[in-house]
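Internal tracking record. Fields below are filled automatically when a chain is submitted to the structure queue. Please do not edit lines marked as system-generated. If the sequence contains nonstandard residues, flag them in the REMARKS field before resubmitting.
Queue: standard
Priority: normal
Entity type: single polypeptide chain
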Amino acid sequence: MTKQNIAVIFGSRSAEHDVSIITAISSIIESLEVVSRYNVIPIYIDKKGAWYSHSGLKDISLFSSGKLDDFILKLKPISVSFNGSMNIVFQGLKAKKVVIDVAFPATHGTYGEDGSLMGLLEMANVAYVGCDLPSSVIAMDKVLSKIVTTSAKIPSNQFVWFYRDEFLNNKQDVIKKIGSLKFPLFVKPAHLGSSIAISRVSSDKELINAIEVAMFYDNKIIVEEEVANLVEVTVPLMGNDKIVAANTEEPNQGDRFFDFDTKYLNQGKSKVGSSMKGSQGYSHIPARISEEMRRKAVTIAKDAYRAIGCKGIARVDLLIDKKTNDIFFNEVNPLPGSLYAHNWNSVGISKVDLVEKLIDLAKENFKVKQKVHTTFSSKFLQQF
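SYSTEM-GENERATED OUTPUT FOLLOWS
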């Protein structure tokens, strides 16, 4: 049986570059490697945007050893060619071309998860895992996702948003607009994940500082009211038309806000003695909510998934006021870190099962798209 060529694409010019490497290798490549029918092709995009492929890029120790730059210097960047399909061209004395059957994006953040890579894959006419271009764009824009879900009558906590130039040119007007909200507030770049440049503020002075930090990473900023009596719940989802949910998950943060360092470097130290690494060591699975609230949370998460148009996989984050039992949409992550494999495992889906299901969903979605006509025959040109 001919092996299917699965291109796992990771890295890229993103603030979440390093998180992407972990997702690609630990959750995708290592899982696919144990399935004999796949030929796994790692495609690493460096921080300057060059594309590389080599079997050595499947090994996480290369990235943690500090020897990556020297390794890359010995490689020639690959190129991508399109001829009704996606082809990876390895440069050398004899150029080698490999046709990609399915692309598996693991590129978090900018130039990947935000829809940039999905647009390229659409043009290449190749099946790919995960959300498509429109849903990725909406999901990765915290403002757009709030607008779309609110229009679908999905409740959200109060928010305002603005562009960098608005703040720089009319600071007082922006501050006045934010004044309609009540402290404490969260200030966030509209397009980043992994809690990068997100700040919780309780005063005007803190607000200005937080906005300046957020503007360093994005030109679009969202400011949200904090939900009182907060229980934060994450709902990992998978599917195209038929959507299934894994266990709900609840960060064990108490009164603390988890920034990037706490999530990924300090191993979520609010959970004393945890042996779990990265972002998984500070959560309760399942979330500590009633069965009625769990069902309500899953329903709202699925509604948001559909409203935004997600495909394949995504994670919906919800905010619950535990006194009133109100549930608010927070955001959608179209590429959950490490695919939230630990969460799917808690409902009996292994890492290997997960990536195989996602590849099958990619093929299914690709077949559906092929039935849609995107060209049109006319006599328009004959008049010239």
